[in-house]
Fold:
Amino acid sequence: MKIIVTGVAGFVGSNLAAALLREGHIVEGIDNFSFGAPRTIEPLRAHPNFHFFEADVRDPATLTAIPGDAVVHLASQKIPRYTNALRTLNDNSRMTANVVDKCVKDGIKMVFASTSDVYGKNPHPPFSEESNLVLGPTTVKRWAYATSKIYSEQYIIANHDEHGLEYTIMRFFGSYGPNQNLTWWGGPQSVFIQNTLEGKMIDLHGDGQQTRTFTFVEDTVQGVMKCIFHPNSRNEIFNIANHPDEEVTIRDLAFLIHELMLGKDTEPNVRFIPYETFGKYEDVRRRVPDISKAMNMLDFNPQYSLREGLKRTIEWQRAINKQIAG
Structure:
């Protein structure tokens, strides 16, 4: 099949493209390098089935000229922790509308990357696909990202109802691994590894007792591949995540990374940063998935524990730092 991947130079996009090529598919990759890095797709450029377009999905003309059998829409603006929420809302809604329009007109499937952030402040984990989506007040810009994804999900489903759009919606939980962004855009594990490599203090936001369930990228990609090709994925929503017993506090994540990189003889040098530092900000206390639907319907089965995934990620991040240093 010919698969169009938006955000192909990003973290999940570059790993997905490599997996699709290994399976014999053609990848039509789109990225404007606003957050993705050219180095992530450099190994793919010589592959005869990889075609790259440096372009912007916010422009509807970008998609019009590229034929395909399905679009995997990964390009996105994330949580506006350090920026204004307007770009997150505008860009995500505009890109979703353009991809939906492309898929409706061409009669092809849309596979959409949503987020576990849509579960927001729901106090009853683990979260299934039918769990309530509970966001904080609109005066807190942190919720702009979840709002944009909820709107996109609703927009996709409405176009299914009105125009027969075939879709699969994926709610990612904390993906990490090779090709992740080395800043906070890539998640706390990325920054903790980077700070440890550079001998810097590790900043823990809040009290560090908030929990997440992190998913190694190879397991995320396994889930995306199931959502593209498995017949049971049609017009469904799936949590794509690690097993719920891998839930970890952010403090324990920092300590685990320190142990894997520097051993148990010393403790990490950490400091706690109040949320007030970010302005009016709210965090989620627990983020735990129920993945039984994906396991039962798609035969999805995550393979990597957090410890094993972090070992592989640390090895990659050490190597990429040497490469960047030249």
The longest helix spans residues 85-106.
